[in-house]
Design goal:
The chain is of the alpha+beta class. It is about 40% helix and about 20% strand. The chain has a 5-stranded antiparallel beta sheet, with no helix packed on it. The mean pLDDT is about 85.
């Protein structure tokens, strides 16, 4: 990219300078598109490499699971408190990914739990 001062020193006509600047601006859009394509290809490659090692273990009815304990604001003094509660049985699963739970004493939960908040409990 040639600056305006360098252009004046080289005595390039103003029309030629303006045309050169427009050409450079048009190339910027092309470079941005090429960079965006490169990022998408890289992300696709990384996703494939990651998913190769992931084993899908879907939850099923009657599985033992742990439920995450989440608070709105985390108190740093409670850093040693448990992060999971349970174990619970999965009483019912919905197609949307929610799970109805019950504890080991067969007491049922009144509300469903999102499947993302559960992890399998191995005994």
């Amino acid at each position: 990219m040639v600056s305006l001062r360098a252009t004046l020193e080289q005595q390039i006509p103003e029309a030629g300078w303006a045309q050169a600047r427009l050409d450079q601006l048009n190339l910027l859009d092309e470079r941005r598109l090429r960079a965006a394509d490169h990022v998408r290809a890289y992300q696709r490659k990384m996703t494939c490499a990651f998913k190769k090692r992931v084993k899908s273990r879907p939850l099923q009815r009657a599985d033992l699971v742990l439920k995450v304990i989440r608070g709105l604001i985390r108190d740093p003094r409670e850093k040693f408190r448990p992060n999971w509660s349970g174990p619970y049985f999965i009483r019912e699963l919905t197609l949307e990914g929610a799970a109805w739970l019950m504890d080991l004493d067969r007491n049922r939960f009144l509300e469903p739990t999102n499947g993302d908040q559960l992890k399998r409990y191995y005994v």
